[in-house]
């Protein structure tokens, strides 16, 4: 019997060491460094191919100034994807379900883009507060709305990631418990629930990757506006 | 074959006799640098054996992941033991 559905999101500690530490340091182990050889092993080749494709995709529309951010955004993407995907394994802890972690990722990077934009080209960044072609009467209201939307961005980024992952994990737990308890009573219904569970797990794998990608993509878009 | 005498501390773990275990443990380097270099050496051994090979498969990473799942289970056991199916809780 689940005593509390949200217990899975508490960071457990063993001998005073939180599991969060292990979960956060695991991605470091899984990605080896490229060797000083012409041809690498298979794992490294796949890894380099993936990273190169991602960088091409995100940084092509950006001007050269923005390319300095490639390492930060790529490491962020790899970190988030690994954390999300590892959280789908049984008994593991997903640090990205904690709002504190996601806000800690979103707020500093967003703030950097805003401050950079304000310093280098203040007129241009302030110009983003007013979309082109608005009727003159609407200008004051629209500026206020756009400012609010600017300040909500880090909150939206953090909460989007947290909510998606938390909801996914909760759903998996609920449907799995449903299938488990229905099995002795009504096997046919339990079979349907198990199919639903399977499809949901596939969805969760996709969501894990997509959410990390969206996070980094939006940050790169904010960067493009301001740099 | 008579080997040259090696100081106890420098032997590998499998070569240390049971009685010498205490001396061996006492002489090991437990400073942060020492711990990090031990982790580094272990990592290099694993990497060069299972991942940095010409035709590596999924086994190298799969072992790491299964180990991670096992460690997470041990870590969360106190938490999970309340989820057992009992008639009376």
UniProtKB/TrEMBL annotation, chain A:
<keyword id="KW-0375">Hydrogen ion transport</keyword>
<dbReference type="InterPro" id="IPR035908">
    <property type="entry name" value="F0_ATP_A_sf"/>
</dbReference>
<keyword id="KW-0472">Membrane</keyword>
<keyword id="KW-1133">Transmembrane helix</keyword>
<dbReference type="GO" id="GO:0005743">
    <property type="term" value="C:mitochondrial inner membrane"/>
</dbReference>
<feature type="transmembrane region" description="Helical">
    <location>
        <begin position="170"/>
        <end position="190"/>
    </location>
</feature>
<dbReference type="InterPro" id="IPR023011">
    <property type="entry name" value="ATP_synth_F0_asu_AS"/>
</dbReference>
<feature type="transmembrane region" description="Helical">
    <location>
        <begin position="69"/>
        <end position="89"/>
    </location>
</feature>
<keyword id="KW-0999">Mitochondrion inner membrane</keyword>
<protein>
    <recommendedName>
        <fullName>ATP synthase subunit a</fullName>
    </recommendedName>
</protein>
<comment type="subunit">
    <text>Component of the ATP synthase complex composed at least of ATP5F1A/subunit alpha, ATP5F1B/subunit beta, ATP5MC1/subunit c (homooctomer), MT-ATP6/subunit a, MT-ATP8/subunit 8, ATP5ME/subunit e, ATP5MF/subunit f, ATP5MG/subunit g, ATP5MK/subunit k, ATP5MJ/subunit j, ATP5F1C/subunit gamma, ATP5F1D/subunit delta, ATP5F1E/subunit epsilon, ATP5PF/subunit F6, ATP5PB/subunit b, ATP5PD/subunit d, ATP5PO/subunit OSCP.</text>
</comment>
<dbReference type="GO" id="GO:0045259">
    <property type="term" value="C:proton-transporting ATP synthase complex"/>
</dbReference>
<feature type="transmembrane region" description="Helical">
    <location>
        <begin position="196"/>
        <end position="223"/>
    </location>
</feature>
<keyword id="KW-0496">Mitochondrion</keyword>
<keyword id="KW-0406">Ion transport</keyword>
<keyword id="KW-0813">Transport</keyword>
<feature type="transmembrane region" description="Helical">
    <location>
        <begin position="138"/>
        <end position="158"/>
    </location>
</feature>
<dbReference type="Pfam" id="PF00119">
    <property type="entry name" value="ATP-synt_A"/>
</dbReference>
<comment type="similarity">
    <text>Belongs to the ATPase A chain family.</text>
</comment>
<keyword id="KW-0812">Transmembrane</keyword>
<keyword id="KW-0138">CF(0)</keyword>
<dbReference type="InterPro" id="IPR000568">
    <property type="entry name" value="ATP_synth_F0_asu"/>
</dbReference>
TrEMBL record, chain B:
<dbReference type="GO" id="GO:0042776">
    <property type="term" value="P:proton motive force-driven mitochondrial ATP synthesis"/>
</dbReference>
<dbReference type="GO" id="GO:0046933">
    <property type="term" value="F:proton-transporting ATP synthase activity, rotational mechanism"/>
</dbReference>
<keyword id="KW-0496">Mitochondrion</keyword>
<keyword id="KW-0472">Membrane</keyword>
<dbReference type="GO" id="GO:0031966">
    <property type="term" value="C:mitochondrial membrane"/>
</dbReference>
<dbReference type="Pfam" id="PF10206">
    <property type="entry name" value="WRW"/>
</dbReference>
<keyword id="KW-0812">Transmembrane</keyword>
<comment type="similarity">
    <text>Belongs to the ATPase F chain family.</text>
</comment>
<feature type="transmembrane region" description="Helical">
    <location>
        <begin position="56"/>
        <end position="75"/>
    </location>
</feature>
<keyword id="KW-0375">Hydrogen ion transport</keyword>
<protein>
    <submittedName>
        <fullName>ATP synthase membrane subunit f</fullName>
    </submittedName>
</protein>
<keyword id="KW-0813">Transport</keyword>
<keyword id="KW-0066">ATP synthesis</keyword>
<keyword id="KW-0138">CF(0)</keyword>
<dbReference type="InterPro" id="IPR019344">
    <property type="entry name" value="F1F0-ATPsyn_F_prd"/>
</dbReference>
<keyword id="KW-0406">Ion transport</keyword>
<keyword id="KW-1133">Transmembrane helix</keyword>
<dbReference type="GO" id="GO:0045259">
    <property type="term" value="C:proton-transporting ATP synthase complex"/>
</dbReference>
